[in-house]
Please model this.
Amino acid sequence: MIIVISWVFYRYFAPKGWREWAGAGLVQAFIIALYAEMYGFPLTVYLAIRLFGLDRGLVSYSLWSTLLNFSEAGMFVAMILGYSVAFIGIGLFIKGWKEVYKARKEKRVVTTGLYRFVRHPQYTGLFIALFGEGVIHWPTIFSISLLPLIVIAYYFLARKEEREMLRQFGDAYRIYQNQVPMFLPRWGEWKAMKKSSQ
Model:
């Protein structure tokens, strides 16, 4: 899974500058840590058992099952919910990427579709996908601690991209920037954004 996901990530979304490589490296570390721990011995569950004296009988289940004292059913619910959230994020990422790719070819600012809700829907989708997989479905020490670092890295990358957009499009982008939030849509626009991503 690490090789397949990494190949797709670097094949289709190859970083250009060092900031993009830094963000991509954090996402890569997230993926490696998630799958290495998921399919190896769950270090997070082990530490939770040792530090908090939790029931050792649940060591084969996910962290949520261990902490909330659920059985395999709890792990299954977390898996379904986590994958659902992850697929929503992946859908936003792909749709946002398609919209910006088309606009780049036409040398224009994208302000329609997902871009009318947030300025960086592909990053919003990435954050949602990583949250679904690394916090809801299979939370680990690594995935929970890397997620904020990923958000910070992509925040700085988004700021750099926006400086470039301001140089290229000037006031047209500045007006758009002042009207549309960066990553999170305004309250009440989540449903419309989800509909727009389909």
